[in-house]
Amino acid sequence: MGTPLIAGLAVAAAALAGRYSIQAWQAYKARPIVPRMRKFYEGGFQPTMNRKEAGLILGVRESANAEKVKEAHKKVMVANHPDAGGSHYLASKINEAKDIMLGKTKGGGSAF
Q1: Least confident range of 5-9, 39-43, 99-103, 108-112
Q2: HEC string of the chain?
Q3: Which end of the chain, N or C, is surrounded by fewer C-beta atoms within 10 Å?
Q4: Is the pTM of this model over 0.70?
Q5: Mean of pLDDT values over 57-69
Q6: CATH no., domain 51-102
Q7: In the predicted model, what is the mean pLDDT of the chain?
Q8: How many CB atoms lie within 10 A of CB 12?
């Protein structure tokens, strides 16, 4: 007599779980798509660096003031310094970008 009762409860539990699963799946599919990663610049370095490329390297606008450029340069160099395992090439490009943004050079190129 207890077996049909247990079987009935199991069927009811399975039906409720299936209903909940379908509702959860529909809510998951209906949610708006949110980009998870920031879109990065796709491309290599130009033969001669310009202000646009320098701004992209440092993560500032082309019209950024000197303080923002210096702050961004320090932040990027800490992450890419050759003494901390970074690349000498990238460090030279970062320094070149800072010089161009501060108006110290005309984009003569890096040491590499």
Answers
A1: 108-112
A2: CHHHHHHHHHHHHHHHHHHHHHHHHHHHHHCCCCCCCCCCCCCCCCCCCCHHHHHHHHCCCCCCCHHHHHHHHHHHHHHHCHHHCCCHHHHHHHHHHHHHHHCCCCCCCCCC
A3: N
A4: no
A5: 91
A6: 1.10.287.110
A7: 86
A8: 10
